[in-house]
Amino acid sequence: MLGNAGAIRLRARLFSSKKLKSKGNVSKKALSDENITDRKYVFICGLQRSGTSVLARNIGKLESCTSFKNTGVLQDEGQYLQDVYRPDGAYGGTGRYGFDPRAHLTEKSRLLTPENVARLHRSWRSYWDPAKSICVEKTPGNLIMTRFLQAAFPNSYFIVIRRHPVPVSMATQRWKVSLTPLHRLFEHWLRCYDLFEEDKMHLKRVYELSYEEYIKEPDKYHREIALFIGTRTPPASLEEVTDVHNKRYFDRWSNLLTNSSFKSYYRYIASKYEPRLARYNYSLLSSPGTGRSEEREASDTPAVVGALYCLGADANALAWRITLQSKWLIKRTLRAHLPEPVKAGIKRLLGRPSLEKQTANVS
Fold first, then answer.
1. Are 214 and 162 in contact (CB under 8 A)?
2. Do residues 201 and 150 lie in contact, with contact meaning Cβ atoms separated by under 8 Å?
3. What angle do CA 224, 229, 235 make, to 5 degrees?
4. d(CA 67, CA 56)
5. pLDDT tens across 160-191, in order?
6. Closest to 48 measured CA to CA, from 167, 156, 155, 215
7. Higher-confidence residue: 295 or 211?
8. How far is residue 232 CA from its own chain's centroid?
9. In the chain, count of helices (H) and strands (E)?
10. Domains and CATH numbers, the chain
């Protein structure tokens, strides 16, 4: 049921356009010239590892919907298919970009010129099916760019998905591109969703759901989303979703709180962020998704000691990043300066065919 005050946290909000006046610099002529107002634009929002990809793929399969496919860029995300605004990698990347004020774009952004809006639309239009009337775009950073996107695409709809910060943060840590300690990832989760909560009142059309409820009843949410954007679900079934990954991360988090050599650190950050996450109906001290209902006592670690734990975690993560970046720089330098015959010989020794051989095989 919509508006449930419990764990669902699902809301569809439609505001009258008369109450929300655009403050952007986009002219009506620029919009009509690009036929932007002839279509609906659906933006999928939510942090990386929150279920945005599977949600976007399923929404893209609804009747009259078209989404990005086989674009050649990471996760078919729109941020990599345009040059109007900078991708999240420019602001620290996954798990960090929300801390940079420049990543938070609104209708007041200087980027919102008629020329930029037209260019942004042209960049994405070539990847959408022109025969479809509902265009779907997914980029996690949309979460803190909703007001900007609404100004650029007035006929826009925002679907925001939220997932428990434990699986989001732990899944992010597993990426080699994000060596960030857990307390920073929890802080980043709160930073981004807090910004969205502030921006939400400026939006005309918003639909919110949690990943946890989505994987329980995907068909129900597909129907509700179809109704929200004005279409229908297809006769064929959509992509399946599962809670297997969630349970694995919750089990790991439970083990860190009880058996880790650094459990004092994990208990401290759990207690620190518990009150703020409670506003989103999430907990770090209980055991969601594990089949257990017990709650752990809050840490009694003094704030000064806890801060030292966090500094140690930050220092360790920094050391790892410096080590990996150094290795990457060395590899890039060698690739740039070694003669081609030497590089071809190294590839043969490693059992990898040379580029020339790969090209020949393709042709």
1. no
2. no
3. 60
4. 8
5. 999 999 999 999 987 655 578 999 999 999 99
6. 167
7. 211
8. 25
9. 13, 6
10. 12-241 (3.40.50.300), 246-301 (no CATH), 322-362 (no CATH)
Question: Helix, strand, or coil here: 84?
Answer: coil
**Hey, is 216 helix, strand or coil?**
helix
Rounded Cα gap, residues 159 and 145, in angstroms? 13
How far, in Å, CA of 122 to CA of 120, rounded? Answer: 5
- How far CA 127 is from CA of 34, 73, 115, 155, in Å, comes to 15, 12, 20, 19
How far apart CA 59 and CA 71 sit, in angstroms, is 17
280 secondary structure, DSSP code: T
In tens, the pLDDT along 295-326 reads: 555 566 777 676 776 776 667 666 655 665 66
Structure tokens at 23: 């403050």
Question: Token pair of 292, please?
Answer: 């257990």
pLDDT tens digits, one per residue of 247-290:
899 999 999 999 998 899 999 999 999 999 999 999 999 865 43
pTM for the model: 0.78
Task: Give all strands (DSSP E) within the chain, no chain letters.
Answer: 12-14, 40-45, 65-67, 134-138, 156-162, 205-210
- How far from 327 is each of 142, 175, 226, 333, CA to CA, in Å? 32, 17, 48, 10
pLDDT of residue 14: 47
Buried b (16+ CB within 10 A) or exposed e, 273-289: bbeebeebbbbbbbbbb
